[in-house]
Each structure stands twice: as C-alpha cells, then as structure tokens.
C-alpha cells in the first residue's frame, strides 16, 4: 500500500508487471485521455485493458478489507456523537469572554506604542536642533577665529579653519544666523584668496620652495586647486606665450615653426621646474603636494589658445606641402610635450583635456586629404584617357596608365604625403586606384570588342581571304626554296589604326604591341604590389597600432587576382590577331593534290612553302615582343596559337587524305571493271603516295617549328592526331 501524503489515502500496491504507474490516478491534473495516449505509446490497448481490470480487482479487494477493518467504528458512529452539541454550547461563553479580554489588551498595547514613538520623535527633533545649534556656534567661533588669524602669518591654519567653516555653512544652509553672517564669510574668503595669491606669486618669483609648498597645500585644503593653476597660467604662462607664439616670431625666426616650438618647450624647464619638484612624484626628496598638474591645466591650454588666436597660418591647408611639414612639426612638438609630463597618468589627463581635442581638430586633415586625392586621382584619370601611350624610356613601366598608377600608389605612402592620422583614407585611395585600373582594363576590352563588331558589320565578307590561293601560287607550293619565296606576305604583327569607312566607329584599334605592353605591366604589377605592401605599407600600419593585417593582405590579394583574371582575354586578342594571319595559309593544304596528279613531279623531299608563311607572323611577333613579354606569357600565347593551328591543320589534312584515298579506291574499281588491271611497270611512287609523302613531311616540319618556338609536341593535344594521320598515310603507302 502507498499513501498519498496530501490526502492521507492509501493506494493498494499492484503487480510490477502493470503497464502504468498507479500514482498517476492521484495527481491533481490527471486526465483520462492523456493517460490512455501515454500508455498506448508503450503497450497495445488490449494489454492496457487487461492491466486496468487486474488493478480494479485489487482496488475492490482493498476497499472490502478497509470496511471490514473499521466496521465497529462505522456501526458505533451515531452513539459516539450523542451529547456533542451540549459540549460545544458550554464552550461558547468562555471563548467570547476571552476574546473581549484579548481585544482590550491589544488596545492598551497600541496606545503604549504610540506614546513611545512620539517620545522618540521628540528626542530626534531635540538632537537635530542641538546639532544645528552646535554648528551655528561652530560657525561663529570659526569666523571669529579666522578673523583673528588673518592678521597674522598662520595662513595654513586659517585654511584648515576655513575648510571647517565651509562645511558648517553647507550643513546649516538657509538658517537666519547663516544668512546674517554671510558678509563676514565673504570678506574672509576674499582676504584669504588675496593673501594666498600674494604669497603664491611671491614664492614663484623668489622660487621659495617652502612658501610654494605651503600655498599649494592651502589651496588644496580649501579645494581651490584650479585657482592656483589658473593664477600660474595668467601671471606666468600667458605673458611668455604671447611673446613667443606670434606670426612675427615665425617670420623673424630662422628655424620658423620648429624654432617657435623649441622656445615654447624651453618654458617648462625654465619656469616650471620648482612647481614640478613640489607636485610631481619622485621629482624631489621633499614632501609632494598632490592634486596639481600645471603642465596639463595651465601651460597646455595657454599654448593652444595662443596658437589658435595668434598663429592661424600654421593650420592653413591651402598649400599641401607646407601643411604636411607644419603638421609633422606640430606632432613632434606634441610628442615632446607629452614626454615632459613625467607620468603616464599626466599624459592621459593631457589627452583627455578639451584643449587637446581643440588642437587636434584645428588641423584640417580632411581638406588636406581632398587636395591630395584630387592630385593623385586626377592624374590617374587623365592618364587613363591616353593610357596605352608609352610611359617613356626613363620609366620601368611600358604604358603611361601603369606608370601613373604606380606613381600614385607610391605617392600615397611617401613620407612627403603620408600622415598617420590619414592611414585609413590613404589605404582606401590606394585600393580605389587599383580598382580603377582594373575597371579601365575592362572598359578597354569592351571598347575593342565593340569596335571590332562594328568593323566586321561594315565590311564585305572575307571568305575569299581564307579560300584557295591562285593557280600561280599553288604551282609554287611544290616545295623548295622557290616555293617559300613565292608565299604571300602576312600582315604586320602590330597593325596600324584604321578608320571604319561608314563612320560607325572612330576609336582606334588596340595594337598587338600595346596589348603586349599591357600584359607586361600587369605581370609586373602582380609582383610589385605585394612587395610594396610588405616594404612600405605594412611598417606604417604596424606603427599605427594595427598588428593584425590579415584583412589588408586579403584586399591586396583580391586586387592582384582581379588583374590576373583580366589577362586571358587580352591574350586572346593577341592570339586571334596572329591566328587570323596564320590561318590564311592552312587552306592551301587542300591544293597539294593538284601539284602531283598527272604532273610527273619528283617525290617530295622538303616541306611545303606554305608552312614558312604560316609561322612567319609568329616569328615576327616573337622577334619583336618575346623579350618584353616574358617566358610565361610568351609560352601561353604560343601554346594557344599552335593548339588552334594544329586543330585546323589536322582537319584540313584529314580531308585531303580521305579524298586521296577515295580517289585511289575509285580508280582501282574503274580499272578492275575495264579489265585493264595489269602489273604496274612504272617505277617510283604513285601520285597519291607523293601527296601522302608531302603531307607526312609537312606534319614533321610543323612539329619542328613548334619546338623552335618552345612548344613541346606533347603539350598540344591535337598533335597526336596529326601524328596518327601521318602513320595512317605511311600505312597506306606501304600497303600496296
């Protein structure tokens, strides 16, 4: 049996095999539907029904046992309740009397508590008035005592007493006696300050450490530290700075601004030495007076005020070179002044001072940057208009655009332009210049594509340029030196600008030489920009306190990658131009059969003349630009060109060999039909074999030409097909 503590009801225990917990029935939030759903997750409904039936029988048995156990009490219940009403009635009267007595005691206690609280309030009021009276007596006593001591030299005692007086007056504010005595207090204040000022100034003039220490302690006691600092600023700092900081001094000094700042810094050891000995920790062996910072609160504000009012020319940003020099000079002066502060806490107070902020914002750095921005960005924009012009022999770059871009990047970080406060802006300007150069490359490419589209649309079909050569030219292709000398002369590798006749485009085309220069400069940029960052930019970034430059490196890499991504499409312009010139000779392969059919020519021993004509544009390009272009770009261009040439050559050669084979088979069938097939007594190669032999020699010569240009045969995927055609041609020659 288990017992529900809240209700005192005992539940009979069931077998452990039940699929539910019997305590669930006794919970206040028991829900039949929820109970059935939870049980169904564990067992089928049939099992739940059987277990509930088992437990129902257990409950019935337990109920019967309970009734049997307390049967006698159930039967005698009515007998046991006889006389209970009379007993309850007898208790009613005594309980009522007890209630009245308790209420009367409670009332008496409340009255006593109120009386005690009233007495306590009266006592507190008496104590308050007594304290107020004591303060008034102290005020009167302090005033009389101070008035007596003011006539003597006990200034420090007077200050202590005056400090007490100030405290008492503050606590007793508004009382009639305080209002009445206020004139006397004001007179005391004036007399005390006058006495302190006189003693302080005399101590400064005579450099009397004892008097100055006493005055400074007194100012600290009466909470007038700022008054002492302002007094020093007004009587000592201001006259000196007005004499030194002026436009006249700048004009008369041989050192200019540096000389003026040196004179200003000389004020500290000359006129502040004694005060620094008294107020700075570790400056002297005597007692230190805390709470003062004359350099921060007296000297520096006066310097800034005079610089702002008396020398406005040093802040003028109109001439960026002069502004840059003066700004660096002022920052060096500021660093030296901070070093004179003595402690890091003093430096922090200086940087938090309003005059420090005033001095910083007085320098028009945004205006200076805007002027530099217009100089650098304007030069780049002007250069991009004629960006493909030569940069000149004195430059390390080929193009005027790249030369100006690099000059702008160097200028941003040059010591004559760079300012640490403009690090973020100059970095952004550097990225903008590189991005503008990439954008210029894109625009250059798009303009060239548009010009070519308009040029093609305005000209007649050029199919005749790629067709067969004339009969005279074909006759010369039989082989040998004469054939080579008769081959057509290709167009120059750097075509001259030409105007479109219909006027649809007036833009000059980009020459191959200009694209080569662009590729050379782009490759050099990819190398030099990361080096420039490491050698020039990164030290300045670290000096500014930024030691995690991962993001900056990513920006550099993005710009370098952007330049690299633009190079393939410019290489394509070069390769297309050269391929156009080279491809004109490939179609002449299809005219080789005419040279040997029924001509009784000797068997070929040399390559055809069209091959020399086909590689001549490549030779001209390589001789003119290979040195400047570099091995990487040159090898890529040659590989692209030869891959395309080999594919075209393979296609045309395959057609010729197929045609020869079909012709040969057709002749064989014709002879067989006519019955004229006899033993061939003709010596030497047949015309078809001569054609195959010439093609085999041409394929081998093409491979040699590729190697002379530094292109490996294996790197050109289509050349293996050409070799397969050559092997097939050999097989056809020997199979007869």
Can you put this structure into words, describing what you see?
This protein has a two-stranded antiparallel ribbon. With 736 residues, the protein is mainly alpha-helical. It folds into 4 domains: 2-80; 224-363; 370-459 and 491-579, Tetracycline Repressor, domain 2 (Orthogonal Bundle), CATH 1.10.357; 584-671 and 684-734. Helix 5 runs antiparallel to helix 6, helix 5 crosses helix 7 (176-206) and helix 23 packs antiparallel against helix 24. Strand 1 (2-4) and strand 2 (9-11) form a beta hairpin. The chain has helices at residues 32-40, 45-69, 71-75, 77-80, 84-149, 155-171, 176-206, 209-221, 225-244, 247-252, 257-265, 267-271, 273-279, 294-310, 320-340, 344-352, 354-362, 365-385, 400-412, 423-458, 471-476, 481-486, 512-543, 550-583, 592-596, 609-629, 631-674, 687-708, 719-734; strands at residues 2-4, 9-11.
Number of helices: 29
Named at the architecture level, the CATH assignment of the largest domain is Orthogonal Bundle
CATH topology of the largest domain: Tetracycline Repressor, domain 2
**Quaternary organisation:** single chain
Q: Sheet bearing the most strands, described?
A: 2 strands, antiparallel
- The residue-averaged pLDDT reads 81
CATH class of the largest domain: Mainly Alpha
Radius of gyration: 55 Å
What's the number of structural domains?
4
């Amino acid at each position: 049996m288990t017992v529900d503590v809240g209700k005192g009801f005992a539940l009979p225990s069931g077998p452990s095999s039940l699929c539910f917990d019997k305590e669930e029935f006794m919970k206040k939030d028991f829900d039949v539907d929820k109970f059935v759903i939870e049980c169904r997750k564990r067992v089928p409904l049939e099992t739940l029904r059987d277990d509930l039936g088992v437990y129902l029988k257990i409950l019935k048995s337990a109920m019967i046992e309970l009734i049997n156990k307390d049967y006698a009490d159930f039967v005698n219940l009515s007998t046991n309740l006889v006389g209970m009403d009379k007993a309850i009635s007898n208790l009613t009267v005594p309980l009522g009397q007890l209630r009245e007595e308790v209420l009367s005691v409670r009332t008496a206690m409340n009255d006593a508590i109120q009386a005690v609280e009233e007495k306590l309030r009266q006592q507190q009021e008496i104590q308050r008035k007594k304290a107020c009276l004591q303060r008034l007596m102290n005020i009167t006593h302090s005033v009389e005592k101070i008035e007596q001591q003011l006539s003597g030299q006990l200034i420090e005692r007077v200050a202590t007493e005056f400090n007490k007086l100030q405290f008492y007056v503050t606590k007793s504010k508004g009382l009639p006696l305080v209002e009445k005595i206020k004139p006397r207090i004001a007179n005391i204040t004036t007399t005390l300050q006058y006495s302190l000022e006189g003693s302080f100034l005399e101590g400064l003039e005579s450099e009397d450490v004892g008097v100055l220490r006493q005055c400074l302690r007194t100012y600290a006691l009466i909470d007038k530290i700022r008054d002492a600092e302002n007094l020093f600023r007004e009587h000592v700092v201001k006259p000196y700075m007005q004499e030194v900081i002026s436009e006249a001094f700048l004009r008369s000094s041989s050192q200019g601004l540096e000389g003026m700042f040196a004179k200003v810094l000389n004020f500290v050891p000359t006129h502040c030495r004694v005060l620094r000995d008294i107020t700075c920790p570790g400056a002297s062996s005597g007692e230190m007076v805390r709470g003062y910072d004359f350099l921060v609160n007296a000297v520096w504000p006066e310097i800034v005020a005079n610089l702002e009012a008396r020398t406005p020319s040093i802040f003028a940003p109109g001439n960026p070179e002069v502004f840059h020099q003066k700004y660096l000079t002022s920052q060096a002066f500021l660093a030296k002044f901070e070093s004179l502060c003595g402690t890091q806490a003093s430096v922090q107070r200086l940087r938090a001072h309003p005059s420090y902020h005033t001095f910083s914002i007085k320098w028009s750095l945004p205006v200076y940057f805007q002027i530099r921005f217009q100089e650098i960005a304007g030069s780049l924009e002007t250069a991009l208009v004629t960006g493909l012009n030569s940069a000149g022999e004195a430059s390390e770059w080929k193009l005027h655009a790249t030369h100006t871009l690099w000059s702008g990047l160097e200028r941003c970080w040059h010591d004559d332009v760079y300012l640490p406060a403009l690090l973020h802006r100059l970095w952004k300007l550097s990225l903008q210049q590189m991005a503008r150069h990439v954008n210029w490359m894109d625009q250059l490419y798009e303009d060239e594509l548009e010009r070519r589209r308009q040029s093609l649309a305005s000209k007649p079909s050029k199919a005749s340029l790629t067709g067969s050569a004339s009969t005279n030219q074909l006759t010369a292709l039989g082989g040998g030196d004469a054939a080579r000398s008769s081959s057509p002369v290709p167009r120059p590798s750097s075509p001259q600008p030409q105007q479109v006749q219909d006027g649809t485009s007036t833009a000059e085309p980009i020459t191959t030489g200009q694209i080569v220069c662009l590729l050379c400069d782009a490759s050099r940029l990819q190398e030099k920009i990361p080096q420039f960052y490491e050698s020039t930019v990164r030290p300045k970034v670290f000096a500014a306190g930024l030691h995690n430059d991962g993001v900056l490196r990513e920006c550099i890499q993005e710009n370098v990658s952007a330049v690299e991504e633009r190079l393939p499409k410019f290489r394509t312009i070069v390769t297309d131009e050269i391929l156009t010139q080279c491809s004109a000779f490939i179609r002449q392969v299809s005219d080789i059969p005419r040279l040997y059919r029924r001509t009784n020519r000797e068997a070929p021993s040399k390559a055809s003349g069209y091959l020399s004509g086909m590689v001549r544009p490549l030779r001209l390009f390589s001789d003119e630009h290979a040195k400047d272009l570099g091995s990487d770009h040159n090898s890529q261009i040659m590989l692209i060109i030869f891959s395309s040439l080999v594919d075209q050559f393979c296609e045309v050669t395959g057609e010729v060999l197929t045609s020869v084979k079909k012709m040969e088979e057709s002749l064989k069938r014709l002879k067989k039909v006519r019955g004229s097939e006899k033993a061939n007594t003709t010596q030497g190669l047949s015309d078809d074999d001569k054609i195959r032999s010439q093609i085999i020699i041409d394929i081998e010569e093409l491979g040699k030409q590729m190697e002379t240009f530094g292109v490996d045969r294996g790197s050109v995927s289509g050349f293996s097909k050409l070799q397969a055609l050559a092997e097939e041609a050999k097989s056809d020659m020997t199979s007869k």
